[in-house]
């Protein structure tokens, strides 16, 4: 339950602390005093979207903080710890700030956390009902959700299984439809791939082959020049087969060595030079031998080889121009294209497999949908009976709620059932769909009756009602107050109301008070007791807090509600 709520600079509320605690708390106040900001503050603490427009004019940010009392072993406590927060014994602190620029920060158990964490905790902490929820109750989805909540864990388990099978069925069906629709297109793609892969495999390019062939073509195209230059260089280095005894490098080095060797004994500096010249001679002789091998290796039939190389280069060039990345992309395409072709060639097998899976899932979805329908039909009878009994306690003694279930045109994520709530206002009248025939006051009471009944099977620790008494007055309002007090015996109930008949049944009465200071209006919250509470009740009844008749009527209401006004023990 929420033990305390703190609000600062939210809407017209400058600063306020709301002591809540167990039982039934009523929040009242003048129009424009900021009663709805209490619900807005709770919404922020439960993950609602931040709105910079709610920050009090002239202030940099608004801030709200709630102190909850929870079970340290509950799922809520586990989620808080997962988010990095801590509990102080059974106490959980949630906080939210909103800047005037619209930035928002959330605090969970003393640690910063995404606002989504607050949303995760919402359903286990509070159920909030505002006037928009009365409108939502007119929708088929909200009516089905109410029935499913009442049906409890058994239906929830079957619904979970159904949705798992439904999503799998839909996904397989989408893939199957795509394969069947694109079968011809994919067949053409497979033919094109097969042709492209055959061409690459026929050419059989090798990594780096085009560069290697380019080097060979350059060599073969200049074969005669290479031979003449090589022969000339070899003759200049070593002309042993030259009949004209032309001096060569080998002979000149040998002559130099002999000249120095004759006088080397006379100077210690010369033997190293003699040795160096000898080594140079060996090196030059090796070069001459390599040139001879090079000349011997020059192809005598270079023209024929050049033709073969150019033909291969042309073949590779044709293939390379078909791919933006050239031959390297073509070589890589052998792997990727083969994998894609294997996928396309297996379409028939895939279609057959998907068809079998989709058929099996459709059968499972059909069976689970039938189980959902059976559970809903059983729950519908009980929900109608129990809500009808509650309506009798809410000044609608002749009203009957009927829960109608019909088969829809197709399976959806929630089954095949169309759920409609029908209200028969009195005996003999034609049942009317809530979506069309119920008034605002009737919707308020139906919504309260449904929550009371559902709470017996799906309990929620805290209910927040924002003007659930809209469109209601007189005896009906008294019955709503009395029923809220009964609900507060098993759950915490917080009600923002403008009716004294409802507020009278609260064990804790808070008033949002508006003070004016020039053009700025600020509001704060007071806990009312004794004469102050009677005066607020009189204001709600007559608009005059000091009216004698209003005060008498207020005290009469409080006396009427007194047995229900004491909150349960903690």
Automatic annotation (TrEMBL):
The similarity comment for this entry is: Belongs to the RecN family.
What's an example GO cellular component term for this entry?
A: bacterial nucleoid
Record's protein name:
DNA repair protein RecN
Query: Which GO molecular function terms does the record list?
Result: ATP binding
Job description of the protein? May be involved in recombinational repair of damaged DNA.
Instruction: Name all RecF/RecN/SMC N-terminal domain ranges.
Output: 7-517
One biological process term from GO is: DNA recombination
């Amino acid at each position: 339950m929420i033990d305390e709520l703190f609000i600062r600079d939210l809407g017209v509320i400058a600063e306020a602390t709301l002591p809540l605690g167990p039982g039934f708390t009523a929040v009242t106040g003048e129009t424009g005093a900021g009663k709805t900001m209490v619900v807005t503050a709770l919404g922020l603490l439960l993950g609602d979207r931040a709105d910079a427009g709610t920050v009090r004019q002239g202030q940099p940010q608004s801030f709200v903080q709630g102190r909850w009392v929870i079970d340290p072993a509950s799922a809520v406590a586990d989620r808080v710890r997962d988010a990095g927060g801590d509990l102080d014994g059974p106490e959980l602190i949630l906080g939210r700030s909103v800047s005037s620029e619209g930035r928002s920060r959330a605090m969970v158990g003393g640690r910063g956390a995404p606002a989504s964490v607050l949303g995760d905790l919402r359903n286990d902490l509070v159920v909030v009902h505002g006037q928009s929820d009365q409108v939502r109750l007119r929708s088929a989805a909200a009516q089905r959700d109410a029935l499913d909540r009442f049906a409890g864990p058994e239906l929830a388990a079957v619904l979970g299984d159904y949705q798992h099978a439904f999503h799998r069925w839909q996904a397989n069906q989408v893939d199957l439809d795509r394969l069947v629709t694109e079968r011809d297109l994919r067949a053409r793609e497979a033919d094109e791939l097969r042709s492209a892969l055959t061409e690459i495999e026929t050419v059989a390019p090798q990594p780096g082959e085009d560069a290697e062939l380019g080097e060979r073509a350059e060599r073969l195209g200049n074969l005669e020049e290479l031979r003449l230059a090589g022969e000339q260089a070899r003759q200049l280095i070593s002309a042993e087969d030259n009949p004209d005894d032309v001096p060569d490098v080998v002979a000149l080095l040998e002559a130099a060595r002999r000249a120095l060797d004759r006088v080397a004994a006379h100077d210690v500096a010369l033997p190293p030079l003699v040795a160096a010249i000898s080594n140079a001679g060996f090196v030059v002789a090796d070069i001459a031998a390599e040139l001879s091998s090079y000349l011997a290796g020059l192809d005598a039939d270079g023209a024929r080889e050049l033709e073969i190389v150019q033909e291969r280069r042309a073949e590779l060039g044709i293939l390379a121009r078909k791919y933006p990345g050239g031959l390297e992309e073509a070589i890589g395409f052998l792997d990727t294209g083969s994998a894609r072709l294997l996928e396309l060639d297996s379409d028939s097998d895939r279609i057959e497999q998907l068809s079998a899976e989709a058929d099996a899932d459709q059968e499972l979805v059909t069976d689970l949908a039938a189980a959902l329908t059976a559970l809903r039909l059983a729950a519908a009878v009980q929900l109608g009976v129990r809500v009808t009994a509650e309506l009798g306690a809410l000044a609608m003694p002749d009203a009957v709620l009927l829960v109608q279930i019909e088969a829809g045109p197709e399976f959806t994520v929630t089954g095949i059932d169309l759920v409609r709530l029908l209200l028969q206002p009195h005996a003999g009248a034609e049942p009317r769909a809530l979506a069309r025939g119920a008034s605002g006051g009737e919707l308020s009471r139906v919504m309260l009756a449904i929550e009371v009944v559902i709470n017996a099977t799906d309990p929620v620790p805290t209910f927040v009602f924002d003007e659930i008494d809209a469109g209601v007055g007189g005896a009906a309002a008294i019955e709503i107050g009395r029923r809220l007090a009964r609900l507060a015996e098993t759950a915490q109930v917080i009600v923002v109301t403008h009716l004294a008949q409802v507020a009278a049944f609260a064990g804790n009465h808070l008033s949002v008070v508006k003070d004016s200071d020039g053009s700025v209006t600020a509001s704060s919250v007071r806990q009312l007791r004794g004469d102050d509470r009677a005066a607020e009740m009189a204001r709600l009844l007559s608009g005059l807090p000091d009216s004698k008749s209003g005060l008498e009527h207020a005290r009469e209401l409080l006396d009427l509600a007194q047995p229900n006004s004491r909150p349960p023990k903690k």
